[in-house]
Amino acid sequence: MLLSLPLLCLCISTDPGEVQTKFVQVHPSRRAQAELRRTPGQQRAVVLIPGLSLAREEDTVAEPGMQIWQYPGSPVIQALAGQADVFSFAYGQNVPVDRIAELPALRERILSLKKLGYGDIVLLGHSAGGIIARQFAEDHPDAGVTRVVQVCTPNGGSVWAELPVCAPSQRPFLASLTVKAREKALKDRVRKNVPKTVQWVCVMGTGAGRGDVAVSSRCQWTPDLQQQGVPVIHLRSLHFLVMNSRDCAACLADAACRNRPRWSEAEVLTARQSLRR
Hints:
The chain is globular, with a radius of gyration of 17 Å. It is α/β, with parallel strands linked by helices. The protein contains eleven helices and eight strands. It has an eight-stranded mixed beta sheet, sandwiched between helices.
């Protein structure tokens, strides 16, 4: 059972584009305080960034609601306990996903973690959250991010994003996750790379064979990632289950905390060939 949420810091802000955000410290659990605090001796901070929260009612789209795996007591946070201080970021989903990575509120909070003295700042993003993590690290190499972990991320888009299943004001967000939109984004950002000093891990969901149901394998670990030597980890899980699975949580914590240098061309080729089997 999930625990109640004793927040170490709760910050809600609105940027000029009316995008609401929330940034809370969720481990270790303490009484609510006015500012973020680093556990004595702890050098690592992990920021959890969620993906799509499907909204059918207009009044919930702009709310920065946290997902269940971002709360204390979730398998992911339990797996990270003792290895890192953990923070959760949430955001309104009334703009394209690319806009979220540009929000001043996100940059300010990541910089505040750097000022607290964390030597290792990890962005762990699920689904669209992985795109936010990626673009933030690419655009802000001085912010202190040392590792990006993308989990079931539609780097190359998802056909599911074309389904008309959300509230009207959430459609720009969903539309930004289509195959066409992500291909355009990759083309527009072709000169953008994650700095060599930032480690990067692509956690690929393969519970449906060549994908995780929502995102195909080739759209998770795209050619541009392969060219950068980004290592890939296979998880036999589905897109909407991976973040709440105890079996997967240990793997995600390991990806967030263990040293993982870029792969050689030979290692990438071996992994690519295994996807074709």
